[in-house]
Specification:
Elements: E1 7-11, H1 17-26, E2 30-34, E3 46-49, H2 54-61, H3 66-75, E4 80-83, H4 85-90, E5 91-95, E6 105-110, E7 121-124, E8 126-127, H5 130-133, E9 139-142, E10 147-151, E11 156-161, E12 164-170, E13 173-176, H6 187-198
């Protein structure tokens, strides 16, 4: 891929942030771990909010100012990839059970909607927008994944699972309820890195 060097900040409070860093490295991108607000003092050209436990992430950010800084960067147009719990973290509404969130993505989500860890699955997804995704086929790795139950008017659905939106785009935010970092050569990672390198909408 052409364009500028990708320097991506990966939220590393908890969860599978290392798998994301490996996927970014495979795509030729540099990354660094973000644990405290000052880790974002140096500019980043993209942000990854990984899977894990959204409640734990929120608790670890309490009183640190990190959540406010993340919201500031997202609002300022930094390209974002949110996966699984990362989607819960930035959703407008979270249910089952209800919890607070950063409210940066205009969707309503239901936590752990596809079952427990034992119910994890690899699924061939329906690509709803091949042009927007840049691919006609997509695999989804679902591990205690949330379900999107409501989508705002400014949100574009790129892929579905059995009718459920599972890959969405709102401005420069790309949100996957599955784990694209666990699929080799994932179109989702490629789409995110194109946005990061071009400084444009995914």
């Amino acid at each position: 891929m052409g364009g500028r060097t990708a320097r991506v900040g990966v939220l590393a409070l908890q969860g599978d942030f290392e798998a994301h860093r490996q996927a970014l490295a495979a795509g030729g991108a540099e990354s660094r771990e973000i644990r405290v607000r000052s880790d974002l003092d140096d500019p980043v050209s993209g942000l990854v909010l990984p899977g894990g436990e959204s409640t734990t992430m929120l608790k670890l950010m309490e009183g640190t100012g990190l959540d406010a800084r993340l919201a500031e960067l997202v609002g300022g147009g930094v390209p974002v990839l949110a996966t699984c719990a990362g989607v819960i973290l930035i959703a407008r509404e979270v249910h089952h059970p209800e919890q607070r969130s950063l409210g940066l993505l205009d969707v309503r989500v239901e936590r752990n909607a596809y079952g427990r860890q034992i119910d994890s699955a690899v699924v061939d997804l329906e690509v709803a927008d091949p042009e927007g995704l840049g691919a006609a086929a997509l695999e989804g790795v679902f591990i205690r994944a949330p379900r999107v139950t409501g989508v705002g008017t400014g949100v574009r659905v790129l892929a579905r699972r059995g009718g459920d939106p599972v890959l969405l785009r709102q401005g420069k935010v790309l949100a996957a309820t599955f784990h694209p970092e666990l699929t080799a050569d994932s179109p989702v990672i490629k789409l995110f890195l194109r946005a990061v390198r071009n400084g444009s909408t995914p």
